[in-house]
Amino acid sequence: MAEVKITVRKDGPYLIVVDGSLTIVDQEGNAIPHREGRPVALCRCGGSTTKPFCDGTHSKIGFEGATAAVGASEAAEDE
After folding, report:
1. What's the whole-number mean pLDDT along residues 39-52?
2. Rounded to whole angstroms, how far apart are CA atoms 39 and 69?
3. Is the Cα torsion angle 50, 51, 56, 61 positive or negative in sign?
4. CATH assignment at residue 22
5. Is cis: bond before 52, omega within 30 of 0?
6. Is-contact 18 3, C-beta < 8 A?
7. Residue whose C-alpha is closest to residue 49's, from 62, 38, 60
8. Residue 37 CB contacts under 8 Å (≥ 6 apart), including other chains
9. Total domain count for the chain?
10. Cα–Cα separations (whole angstroms), residue 36 to 10, 24, 43, 52, 64
11. Which domain holds residue 64?
12. Whole-structure pTM value
């Protein structure tokens, strides 16, 4: 069985590392090509021009991941 590890990078993409084969499909079930055997970074900020893949836009637009945003929101409510 293939090992799959998905890491939510702080204020960045979802990083997928697979020991085996990985298939990514669009909403119609069509395979989206990617480099086999290499980690895959999926966009989380919504700003990438190469969706669903990350192109580094998150660092240019100041994207803050949900964990940081939720933590900041909860801290503000406690004041």
Report:
1. 96
2. 26
3. positive
4. 3.40.5.90
5. yes
6. yes
7. 60
8. none
9. 1
10. 25, 11, 18, 16, 29
11. 3-78
12. 0.78
